[in-house]
Amino acid sequence: MTGWIERIPPQLICERLAPFMTERRKRRIEEALENRIMNLIVLIEDLHDPHNISAVLRTCEGMGIQQVAVIEGPSTFKSHPQVSQGAHKWLHLYRFKETESAIRWLRAEGFVIYASFLGEGSEPLEKCVPFPENLALFFGNEHEGLSRRVIEEADRRFMLPMMGFTESFNVSVAAALTLCEVFHHGFKPRYLTEEERWRLRAEWYMKSVRRSPELLRDLFDRSGSPIEPSPDP
């Protein structure tokens, strides 16, 4: 939420927009909120193929990962709507022009960096346990993998075992397999707090209702202050 809408309490946004939504949509939102994970973030660095970017976003959204970061590098971030199926709408998608900025942000937020890497110093993901409380998973582009900066900064470097002649998985497949392995080997998700849940619910209500800004403008009184939400029954 940005601008003047941020001044409106999320409970009031939901109260105002609820009549314009189907019961089915509201149930889907509540189901998704119940399983949203906030202490695991997936980062993709300088991907060139919009299909791959979109597939990663779709995988993350489907598995309950709320935060995804894209380091654009020389490439400009683009997603492919037919592949992502609108997944980007429901995510907190962070965009960085340079890797260094993304790494500084992760450190400030208390994340431990795990880098997908096939070279020296890498170990099977199952050997990288126990996983940290706040985990950042880095994946590189289709041709060169991750940049040297990420590999040097990573707290752990991991790889997925390969059983055939192929040397690496497609990046979207690698992200999906990694997430499955992380959960299988004991990562403990942190789900939404009550405050986070209200804020995200309000964001999703606004994305679900056309003309939501117009419908919310009448929530300000004549002084320009937001009206307080109705008390809970």
Q: Your description of this structure?
A:
The chain is α/β, with parallel strands linked by helices and 233 residues long. The chain has one domain (37-214): Alpha/beta knot, CATH 3.40.1280. The protein has 9 helices and 7 strands. The chain has helices at 10-17, 23-34, 50-62, 81-84, 99-108, 148-153, 171-184, 194-208, 212-216, and strands at residues 37-45, 65-71, 92-96, 112-116, 123-124, 135-139, 156-159. It has a 7-stranded parallel β-sheet with strand order 3-2-1-6-4-7-5, with helices on both faces. Helix 1 packs parallel to helix 8 (194-208), helix 2 packs antiparallel against helix 8 (194-208) and helix 3 packs parallel to helix 7 (171-184). The longest helix has 15 residues, at 194-208. The model is unreliable at 80-85 (pLDDT under 50).
Give the gist of this structure.
With 233 residues, the chain is α/β, with parallel strands linked by helices.
The spatial strand order of the largest sheet comes to 3-2-1-6-4-7-5
The CATH superfamily label reads SPOUT methyltransferase, trefoil knot domain
Structure class: alpha/beta
Mass-distribution shape: elongated
Parts with pLDDT < 50 across at least 5 consecutive residues: 80-85
For the biggest sheet, the summary is:
7 strands, parallel
Count of DSSP strands: 7
Q: What separation lies between the terminal Cα atoms?
A: 27 Å
CATH architecture: 3-Layer(aba) Sandwich
Strand content: 15-25%
Question: Can you identify the CATH class?
Answer: Alpha Beta
- Can you tell me the CATH topology? Alpha/beta knot
C-alpha Rg (nearest Å) = 20 Å
Give the tally of structural domains: 1
- Average pLDDT number: 87
